Amino acid sequence: MNESANPNSAEASQPKAAHPPARRQHPTAVFQYILKYTWIFIRGFWPIIAGAAVSDNLRAYGEWIGLGVLIIACLSAVVQYWKFTFQVTDDALVIRRGLLERERITIAFERIQMVNLEQSLLQRVFGVMSLKVDTAGSSGAEVELAALKVQDAKALKAVLSSEVNEQSAGTPAPADERDGEQLIALSWGRLFKVGLTQNHLRNAMIAFGSIVALAEPLEGVLSDWLSDVPMYTWFLLKFLWVLLIPIFTIGVVVVGMLVSLIGAVLRYYELQVRAQAEGLELSGGLLKKFEFKIPLHKVQMLEGSSSVLQRLVGFETFKVHQARAQSDPSQGGVNMAIPGLESDHAERLNAMLFPPFSGEKAEVRPHRLMLIRMLLIRAAVVAPLLIWGEVWMQVCALGWAVWLAVAAVHQFRGVRLIVSNEQLRMFTGWLRKRHIRTELRKAQRVVLTESWLMRRRSLAHARIYTAAGPVVVRFIPKETAAQLRDVVLYQAESTNRPWM
Amino acid sequence: MPVFSNDSLRIDALPSLIETEFEGLPQRYRSLRAAVYAGVMLVVFAAIGVLMYFEWTAVNTLRWGVWVALGIAIALGVVWAIEEIKGFPLRGVLVREHDLSYRSGFFKRETVTVPFNRIQHSEVVQGPVARAFDVCTLKLYTAGNSGANLRVPGMDVERAKRLRQQLDERVSQP
Fold first, then answer.
1. CB contact under 8 A, B146 and A493
2. Boundary residue ending a domain (A242, A268, A294)
3. Rounded to an integer, what distance in angstroms lies between the CA atom of residue B93 and that of residue A445?
């Protein structure tokens, strides 16, 4: 596939006069490896560390264990650094690594999905950057060069990503083209608004959760402190706890907003999106800087979403989806998220990524069986509380049930698919609206499913899989689903244009 | 750059997948599935039998849990049998000029279609049981994280190999 690893190949046999010799990374990579290994150890053995906090026996050997870990981490870091070389040839990036099991990874330029640069705070001190190459194959080959000098990293990125598009000679793109058209730049005011319109509830929960997790070891201290609180406070609290609810609520909201704001500033500081000849470039970040680049024809899907708050200020967040490597769903950097787009920006982004959505359009709506199923599932969730709960639980559950039912109806109303001959747009959601846009020719697999119950009403689910994930349309008439499949297959099969 | 045309599409004029054109899988595969069914049922009922035996010797009666287990086993056995008996004739492959479809399932019918020009690589896999029945599984892989694999179990080995060869020829030419 896109990765060929032949550990035993004779490396010196190929003539490589033209390209630069194999190089090592910047020496500071060693530090990063040490940090990485120590972190892996801590994460892997945290029960022991937690044990050490309470057990004197373990603590007695604590220094030795710590020293041992550090030595192992240092040794493996140095070995990894020493044995890791990379080389740019005419048409591929060649990486050799490993001590016992030598590995040689050849990534052909045309297989590269995305090159992205990142710079953490520590890296900035040393003036280095890390460069990640993402190749979306079923084998999921993702390679990271942990540390390169900034100008080296930028040069290498220019080489790699210019070759992504044109397989011309390895010249980096001309300087004037590097700037491109600036699609979006996030100003301070807008950044502030983006921060204010994040999901505060979730952020507050995360903050609350981490406080609780942190507070657990401090429990002893906390209970000591609590026992110092005079008795009459408790007595007062018994009657005044109602007053505490609004205070607590306001506290949660404030904490949530603060966390969102800080998160947004850290992540989206100086965010810029540029339209270049060879693709879309996204850069930004405060402590950890990043620079993504994605060739236009590799874009699989554009997903827009907006919460109630965001719609209030007219913002939408867009995510650019491209083919994902199979092995790392956890890697967050694969999707490019662009927050705070007003409608004119959104339009520009759309116009850049897709041809106009024109021609005959058909709107497809799901059958009301979908609503019935949604209601049934939700009822099944609430029912135990209603039946077996105590009175106050039953009251809460009733309210919850009503809320769920209302939400279900609205969500059901929000689902709609609009198909033209070449593209589709799928709209879902109620409070948090989402829409997905993709070209039909990007499809890689079409699946039609019908359960026994649906068959009697001649309904079907249609799933259209692109390299970046599926578009799922549920409970539509079988005939429509079959037509949709025919159109999609026709578009995918009749074109020779690159689709990923 | 090929000349790009953008004529309007007439949906009814497009080639459509015709359900009746699907080709069934070989009867040997049916025997394999029957053998698997028999094997699993044997194990399950043997386990329940042993359970009943111990219950009977220990407390000289059968408690309700045993009956529930037996009931569930029978119900599942019946449902699975219906799925196999009714579902097997529905299983089938349709190879067209530009794509391959596989249909399966009685209670939940699924039709998967993969265009040939989206296939990254293909595999023919044959386990020991499948070898005994002279069938194999054809696997088609597409790119990315779509989980977009098409698995066609129970294919005739000859046919799978021929199909695969065709595929490889198609895939290798741009």
1. no
2. A268
3. 15
